[in-house]
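Researcher: Next entry in the queue.
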Amino acid sequence: MTEPAKRTRRLAGIDIGTLTCRLLVADCTPEHPLKELRSERRILRLGEGVDQSKRLSAAAMDRVIICLHEWRGIIDSHHVEATAVVATSAVRDAGNRAEFLDRVKTECGFEVELISGEEEARRTLLGIRSGLPVGVTDILALDIGGGSTEFIYDRVGQKPTVRSIDIGVVRLCERLLRHDPPTDEEVRQAREWVARETRAVTADMGGYRQATFVGTAGTITALAAMAQQLPTYELARIHNYMLRLDRIRELEQTLLSRTKAERIGLPGLEKNREEVIAAGAIIVRTIMETLDQGECLVSDLGLREGVLIDLASRRGNQ
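Model: Structure for this entry, 318 residues:
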């Protein structure tokens, strides 16, 4: 008797982030977790001003709603079996999050799952693990978002250690980097803050220096593209690229010596990231120096992919 063919599930996932929203439509099978059919990402800054006001602005909500409405049509055209939509730091921190979630449901037809920093890290790890090079086992993963940064220490056979700090590129810009370009004192304060928080959350992660340091999300992939001066985003050259600390230092100095307007058009820097990329470089450099890491393995896979892998797993168990 032959075994039944393993079923392919067509699924969609959306990650509503503080800075960026991401869409992925993919076919999922046990042998090949994700076969991408359609992917998009847009820098929409949903978390703009949330650090001070604790509220999502009407303009920011409108930007995201317009995008999600368009993505609803894309998802419907692919006839997916199920869709998972998650929201992270900005929505977690906003006092008017219920208003936003209601609007997404009413106007776009999506039920949004508001996930904790720890759950965000768990699903990000699923995405990262799905694309690591052969031979990479224990990892210390870094996921820099707009409102928070997650540290994930994952060793084979042990439960991952997950820590989240409330420092992201948007929050850092709004709280400390108020000049354009930032002043030396602002940069000093930013480094001090990031280093202090990093030391606090990694104090109980004994042995992480033996793990491979892996970075995911837009700051890391943008720096990898800039390090190679790529005119357009090339997944094959960015995913699993080894980004060295000395190159990050060079890029950081280039970015900090320019205004936002002067950063536009720098090779490898995607449009609309010029406002926050210097903050991202400060965060990456400071964390790597604090943890004595000389290089970072770049992962193009992260939360968006993890959301789909998690959804496929749950659908498979039904």
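Model: Residues 265 and 271 are 8 Å apart (CA to CA).
Researcher: Noted, moving on.
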